Amino acid sequence: MPETKRIADQLKRAYEGPAWHGPSLLEALSGVTARQALARPIPNTHSIWQLVLHIAAWMDAVRERIENGPVREPADGDWPEITDTSETGWQATLDLLTQRQQALLSVLTNLTDEQLKRRLGAEHDPPTASGYSAYYNLHGVIHHNLYHVGQIVLLKKLLQEN
């Protein structure tokens, strides 16, 4: 099996499941309302909504890196602002997340295993991912997403207890 297919499988499993580690991103977000997504049950932490926008932004940054080279920060910013706090706004955020997932998968499925090894930029610069391969970036975004899924699960549990 080509490595691109293996990575695509992991990206899909982390996003929609089934994942062996626990809930996927969509499973963790299932049933979350706009009010819950905005809540901060732990002071000085990000809300579920902020985490979702952050995940979507970095998926897009990795896509941009693969297509166009080093990118320091997502076009939306590291922690995009919430502009519409309604249920419609929450649904739009979830739709954006799906769009970003599909765009990243589309770029990935068009790569060859040889292109996975290609360095994105010449100089080693961690903030932009310059000097790192597409392979490294793709695995990084999967790990990044799962890290934040864990946070979402904990926030959701706290919200259910209150």
Query: What is the helix tally?
Result: 7
Low-confidence stretches: none
- The total beta strand count reads 2
CATH class placement: Mainly Alpha
Looking at the structure, what is the overall shape? globular
User: What is the element string, with H for helices and E for strands?
Assistant: HHHHHHEEH
Amount of beta strand = 5-15%
- The percentage helix is 55-70%
Helix and strand topology:
Blueprint: H1 3-16, H2 25-29, H3 34-38, H4 48-68, H5 87-109, H6 113-116, E1 119-125, E2 130-133, H7 134-161
Antiparallel strand pairs: 1-2
Descriptive overview:
With 162 residues, the chain is mainly α. The chain has one domain (3-161): dinb family like domain (Four Helix Bundle (Hemerythrin (Met), subunit A), Up-down Bundle), CATH 1.20.120.450. The chain has helices at 3-16, 25-29, 34-38, 48-68, 87-109, 113-116, 134-161; strands at 119-125, 130-133. The chain has a two-stranded antiparallel ribbon with strand order 1-2. The radius of gyration is 16 Å and the shape is globular. The chain starts with a helix and ends with a helix.
Short note summarizing the structure:
This protein has 162 residues and is mainly α. It has helices at residues 3-16, 25-29, 34-38, 48-68, 87-109, 113-116, 134-161, and strands at 119-125, 130-133.
Keywords:
162 residues, Four Helix Bundle (Hemerythrin (Met), subunit A)
